[in-house]
Design a protein that fits this description.
The complex is a heterodimer of chains A (335) and B (361).
Chain A: H1 2-30, H2 39-43, H3 45-74, H4 94-97, H5 109-143, H6 146-157, H7 164-175, H8 180-187, H9 202-211, H10 213-225, H11 229-237, H12 242-270, H13 274-279, H14 287-296, H15 301-325, H16 330-333
Chain B: E1 5-14, E2 17-27, E3 32-36, H1 43-51, E4 58-63, E5 66-67, E6 78-81, H2 93-97, H3 99-102, H4 108-121, H5 137-150, E7 155-159, H6 167-184, E8 187-192, H7 195-201, E9 204-209, E10 212-217, H8 219-224, H9 229-234, E11 239-248, E12 252-257, E13 260-265, E14 275-280, E15 285-286, E16 295-305, E17 309-315, E18 321-327, E19 340-345, E20 350-354
Parallel strand pairs in B: 3-8, 3-9, 6-7, 7-8
Antiparallel strand pairs in B: 1-2, 1-4, 4-5, 9-10, 11-12, 11-14, 12-13, 14-20, 15-19, 16-17, 16-19, 17-18
Classes of the chains: A mainly alpha (335), B alpha+beta (361).
Bound molecules: adenosine-5'-triphosphate and magnesium ion.
Chain lengths: 335, 361
């Protein structure tokens, strides 16, 4: 029943909502509160219906359905539109397998390479980003005077008024072989020939780190800011050198914030499209570009969807593993 | 293993504001020394200057004779106990206590041994694995002391460590602190705005007001021979009567006040015509008339019975409040509210001091 699998996707959310509604009803019946007015009594019938419809529309059509549709799609074969729903449209794992084994046989080195590179590079960018943001966040939260902190904050936020593409391109201009940095390096005689920053993916790392700077800084800042200054001073008074204070006192305290910042940066990085496209070297292939091409160039939605879910699941698994490793619960990271 | 602390004309400024003004002091090794003063008078600032978190704008701090300029808090032979304790919440009790050893790279077995030793000292034997959050207020207090003692400081600095505790526990911890100090024999510099605490625990006390050290002396000296009007009014209860000296000799002065002429000792050698305040402590009064120059007449406003003593609040001339404290043993009849009563004092217990700022006014 190939057609029904897509139909199921449509029905599932309604069933879930119905179940929730019934549960809510039962709960309300069990704990009778005479002063409690019903939803419609509180809001009036018209307004009540409008609210319900709006929320239902939002959750169903904008949140739940698209994803569900993609999940279902990813288990279907790639077929030209006339054949969809026909006898060949069966449920299959082929799209998922194709990341490892090409449909034509042979290992899919290109895509697996892109997949692994994207993940590893995202981890590297997350680490780099953390290394940049931690001192800044610490300065803003504990060390700096209020006035200077405001200046730093402004300096961090203002560049984000510029749109992403312009930012990426200006970075490209800076890092190009005839760009400002290379010219400066050659002028002071540090190198004879220009360094290929873009080909070496330096541009990619710098661009991605820069793009998600704020995403890392604010959770860190929030976490460190609530640390009692006296704890830092107590450690110092007991003879701890500065790096030990960070290692023993500040970082353990800020761990939830660190986890939350790193998780977000990693996820966004692995899923980013523009920066890798503009700043990656010519041989660099980011996994999202592959997905993008399946959706918009090859019009192979099932495979694009399958790849997307592989990426999503890999990222979630990695994040969970890291949280487990550093003994942070998921709940703490959203505090 | 104790060291003296010398403050040599230490001035600390924050911008234009002078928090500590030319403090000069010599705290002996092994002494229990207290700084006593109202909130905001610069006590914490002095302590932070001694521990190295603040640099004096002028003057020098010497510990064990050695100038501390340019030496950071992690290199000074001092340990500070913070006003809010600042225990590390993510470490166990034992880890907290031995943190100072851990940063010195001392191995785990030695640390464990030291932790057990100190846990025994603070009567928390076998509770090293607890989390700090599982301890009571008094236990946290003791852990903070153990953590500071663990690095074997020559000087222990305590910033109102008992202020967060309830009264009973505070009194208990006073004794405990004193005992610990005698046991370890190092210099304690203790900060408090509670004069009872300072008087019961300290060998010597420095009374501060607005960044200026008003007097240094042992509890008895500060209580019985206050050097300034501020000290007289801040340490213990006191009844001030402001006026002008009308007659004086090197030992006694007669001060013309709202209540007439009152007599008191004259340690500052005040001369005729000088503005002065005559102080008489509540417990120095008796509820009976005496010689004319030591007797006041007033009306009883209220009576407060406090068990071991009774406070009688009187209103004298010009709506001035006078407090009289009568001990239990006194055979005197306590007057009732609204009665007129004559009260008097022994002139040796009256004290005439030069006019100056009073506490709490
Ligand atoms: N970092 C600072 N910057 C500016 N002013 C300060 C600073 N630290 C303290 N002060 C000021 O110095 C004065 C003394 O402060 P300090 O903390 O020493 O008071 P304290 O005697 O310890 O009071 P408390 O009993 O309330 O703790 C206060 O008026 C305070 O406002
Ligand atoms: Mg203070």
């Amino acid at each position: 029943m190939p057609v029904s699998s897509r139909l199921v996707a449509l029905i599932v959310p309604f069933v879930v909502i119905a179940i929730f509604w019934l549960m809510a009803r039962r709960e309300a019946q069990r704990s009778q509160d005479p002063t409690r007015k019903s939803y419609f009594e509180r809001n009036g019938t018209t307004l009540g219906i409008v609210f319900i419809l709006l929320v239902a529309f939002w959750t169903l059509f904008l949140v739940v359905l698209p994803y569900l549709y993609m999940v279902v799609e990813s288990f279907h074969p790639t077929l030209p539109p006339p054949k969809r729903g026909g006898p060949e449209d069966v449920l299959t794992l082929a799209q998922y397998k194709s990341l490892v084994v090409l449909p034509t046989g042979g290992t899919n080195v290109t895509h697996m390479g892109a997949f692994v590179f994207s993940i590893v590079a995202s981890i590297a960018v997350t680490a780099l980003n953390f290394a940049i943001c931690y001192p800044l966040a610490y300065y803003m939260a504990q060390a700096g005077s209020a006035q200077k902190v405001r200046l730093v904050m402004l300096g961090l936020i203002v560049p984000y008024w510029v749109n992403e593409i312009l930012r990426a391109f200006s970075l490209r201009l800076l890092l190009a072989s005839k760009g400002l940095i290379n010219q400066a390096l050659m002028a002071i005689g540090l190198t004879d020939a220009p360094i290929d920053f873009l080909g070496n993916n330096v541009g990619l790392y710098v661009g991605l780190s820069y793009a998600y700077l704020l995403i890392m800084i604010f959770p860190l800042y929030n976490a460190i800011e609530s640390l009692d200054k006296n704890q830092i001073e107590a450690a110092r008074d007991l003879g701890a050198p500065w790096w030990r204070i960070h290692w023993d006192v500040v970082i353990p305290y800020a761990k939830p914030g660190i986890a939350s910042g790193c998780t977000m940066v990693f996820m966004l990085c692995a899923g980013s499209l523009a920066a890798p496209l503009f700043l990656g070297g010519p041989r660099t292939l980011w996994f999202t570009s592959v997905i993008y091409n399946f959706f918009f160039q090859a019009f192979n939605w099932p495979r694009g969807a399958a790849y997307s879910f592989i990426l999503l699941i890999a990222c979630i698994a990695l994040v969970m593993l890291m949280l487990r490793l550093f003994k942070v619960s998921l709940g703490e990271t959203i505090k | 293993m104790s060291a003296g602390v010398e403050l040599d004309h230490v001035t600390v400024r924050f911008g234009d504001f002078t928090a500590v003004d030319s403090a000069t002091l010599d705290i002996r090794g092994g002494e229990f020394f207290s700084f006593l003063g109202p909130s905001g008078c610069g006590k914490t600032t002095i302590l932070r200057t001694v521990s190295g978190f603040l640099n004096p704008s002028e003057g020098a701090v010497r510990i064990g004779g050695k100038d501390m300029a340019g030496i950071g808090p992690n290199k000074r032979p001092t340990a500070l106990i913070f006003q809010n304790l600042a225990l590390f919440p993510l470490m166990s009790v034992a880890e907290n206590i031995t943190y100072g050893l851990r940063v010195q790279g001392i191995d785990k077995a030695t640390r464990q041994k030291k932790a057990d030793e100190l846990l025994a000292l603070i009567a928390l034997k076998g509770q090293g694995n607890k989390l700090v959050s599982e301890l009571s207020g008094g236990q946290k207090q003791r852990v903070a002391i153990a953590r500071a003692l663990c690095v074997q400081p020559k000087v222990l600095l305590l910033d109102e460590p008992l202020s967060a505790l309830d009264l009973k526990l505070r009194q208990h911890m006073r004794n405990e602190l004193r005992t610990i100090q005698r046991m370890v024999g190092i210099t304690f510099i203790y900060i408090t705005h509670d004069q009872g605490e300072a008087l019961t625990m300290s060998d010597r006390i420095a009374v501060m007001s607005d960044g200026v050290i008003q007097q240094v002396g042992d509890g008895k000296a500060v209580y019985d021979e206050p050097a300034t009007a501020f000290v007289a009014s801040f340490v213990g209860e006191n009844n001030p009567f402001a006026g002008t000296v009308v007659q004086a000799d090197p030992s006694f002065a007669l001060v013309e006040t709202q209540f007439g002429r009152l007599l008191g000792r004259n340690p500052h050698g005040l001369e005729q015509g000088a503005r002065a305040i005559l102080f008489v402590r509540p417990e120095s009064f008796q509820l009976a008339a005496g010689a004319a120059e030591t007797t006041l007449s007033s009306t009883v406003k209220s009576v407060a019975f406090e068990g071991n003593m009774t406070h009688v609040f009187l209103e004298g001339a010009g709506k001035k409040d006078i407090t009289v404290t009568v001990g239990r043993h006194a055979a005197t009849r306590i007057p009732e509210q609204g009665e007129t009563a004559a009260i008097s004092y022994d002139p040796a217990l009256g004290l005439a001091l030069p006019e100056g700022k009073l506490a709490r006014e």
